[in-house]
Amino acid sequence: MAGSTVFSVLDRSERNDVVIDRRTLLAAFLGAPAALGLGCRQTAEGDPPAIPPGELVGASADFGHLIRDGINVRIADADLEQRDVVIIGGGVAGLTAARRLRRAGLRNVTLLELESSIGGTAVSGTSSVASFPWGAHYVPAPRKDYPALVELFDEMECFEGVDERGDPIPAEHLVARYPQERVFYKGSWYEGLYLQAGADAADKQQFETFHNEIMKWVRWRDSAGKRAFTLPLEDGSRDDEPFQLDAVSMAQWMDDHNFSSPRLRWYADYACRDDYGMRLEQTSAWAGIFYFASRTSSETEDSRPFITWPEGNGRIIDHLHNEVRDLAHAGWAVADVRPGRGEDKSQIDVVACSADGKQRRGIRCRRVIFAAPQFLTKYLIEDYRRSTPAHVATFEYGSWAVVNLHLASAPTSEGFPLAWDNVIYESPGLGYVAATYQRGLDYGPAIWTYYYPLTDADPKAARQRLLDVDREGWAEIALADLSRPHQNIREVTERVDVMRWGHAMILPKPGFISGVDRVRAAQPFRGIHFAHSDLSGVALFEEAFYRGLRAAEDVLESLGRETERTV
């Protein structure tokens, strides 16, 4: 089923065909009940409800596919620019690397980013009402044992002191506003993510037992005193015991512990979809438990509060970008990376094209920081095109649709009031984050960011399904899903913009975290240093930041520059 084909029928005069095709689309993405009961209401004239105007923004899939399919771009040696370092990718890792190099005094650096905006999956948008996220939208407040990240957030004035353990206290206005979460179930909203309403004694007992199992791993320490789950991952224990969890799926681990409560299973499944874009059956048990256990260091301590902004992690991107703005060039797609041979082993040639295809540029450099996803290496690095290392194939990525709805006013609903994070029980979508709510704008115009991970067993099939549905299709899916808790959502929605992320995040499948492929992928190759969160196996800001710092400091060391290591 191709969504763009489905929505081409909106121009036809046969109204019944339009309704049927909308139902086909909704059945495929929201399930048959949603298709029958939602999204297909008709106007008084018998037409299906109109879809508000908007745009399909970001993610340059078409140009990216040209790079994938191979384009021959050559630059004469006389026309090559000279640089010390070229950074490929302008997400968190690339910007962090550029910032670290600059602070070490290395200024002959160029960063190239395919998209028209710097930021990767942390990019944000803005309107006359408020800024809003297009992807990542929060970071748990760091602890004192991640000093490089504490320093960054301190620069951003995110803290108002330290607690009795020495951990920074986030500024009150940056903590995800209370109420933080709510879940919609059978016609009403309830506080929190775990559905307490209607839970019987068995549900409650299993939830308590599940919590105790997580606390066992929170308490766990190896012989050197290292925790099993921490951020960054590289600071955690290397013992076999916690990594044995990576041998099975989260679903299997829950089966082995007799966790059969539908509410608990949904809660854990939501956690996997939220952080990884995967279902219980697809997610490594190590990654599933990491979601819960990495956010607290002792059973007497609450999970670290979430730091957020209306535009999500776009605020961090702005801070990083401002420091290296003169080094960063958006709208440039790297087409070829050619390590030198013979006497030129210390030189690497990087060739890039402008996104409109009209311009070419070539750079000869001493080092490359490859801060783009690992799957791109087989298309961009000359040696990898000739003979792709086996580890590259094990890196698989999830696909997401992100929909921003611009509302004239908040729609009606029943039960617990609006929260920062609003989740619909049993929906394949993740619900929405209210950007304007974080600013305290409880009335009047609002912007809600709706997230939908495609969790197909085959990531390639998921990516194709994502791209087959056009802007109007994803707008319809979001509106239909949100009309369950908000029956008048269509009446108050003025605009719907859509972002399709075809390679949004690495998938931590069973065996990937503990396997050797991540380690092999992170090893420098002929002057190319790799820096992306996929090397950690989990797509988190903390990991992208770590990878950018580590690659930059490795490069500085390889160039003979004395510098103090921060990671």
Question: What can you see in these coordinates?
Answer:
The protein has 567 residues and is of the alpha/beta class. The chain folds into 3 domains: 3-50 and 397-506, Polyamine Oxidase, Chain A, domain 2, CATH 3.90.660; 61-123 and 313-393 and 513-558, FAD/NAD(P)-binding domain (3-Layer(bba) Sandwich), CATH 3.50.50; 196-303, Guanine Nucleotide Dissociation Inhibitor, domain 1 (Orthogonal Bundle). The strands form 5 sheets. The chain has an 8-stranded mixed beta sheet with strand order 1-20-16-19-18-17-9-10. Strands 2, 3, 12, 13, 14, 15 and 21 form a 7-stranded mixed beta sheet that branches. Helix 5 runs parallel beside helix 12, helix 9 crosses helix 11 and helix 10 (262-276) packs across helix 11 (285-293). It is globular.
Task: Please write out the topology.
Layout: H1 3-8, H2 15-30, H3 32-37, E1 56-57, H4 61-69, E2 81-88, H5 92-103, E3 109-113, E4 124-126, E5 131-133, E6 139-140, H6 147-155, E7 159-162, E8 168-170, E9 181-185, E10 188-191, H7 201-219, H8 240-243, H9 250-256, H10 262-276, H11 285-293, E11 306-307, H12 314-323, E12 328-330, E13 332-339, E14 348-354, E15 360-370, H13 377-380, H14 382-386, E16 397-407, E17 421-424, E18 432-434, H15 435-438, E19 446-454, H16 459-468, H17 471-482, H18 489-492, E20 493-506, H19 517-522, E21 528-530, H20 541-558
Parallel strand pairs: 1-20, 2-3, 2-15, 3-12, 9-17, 15-21
Antiparallel strand pairs: 4-5, 6-11, 7-8, 9-10, 13-14, 14-15, 16-19, 16-20, 17-18, 18-19
Helix pairs in contact: 2-17, 5-12, 5-20, 9-11, 10-11
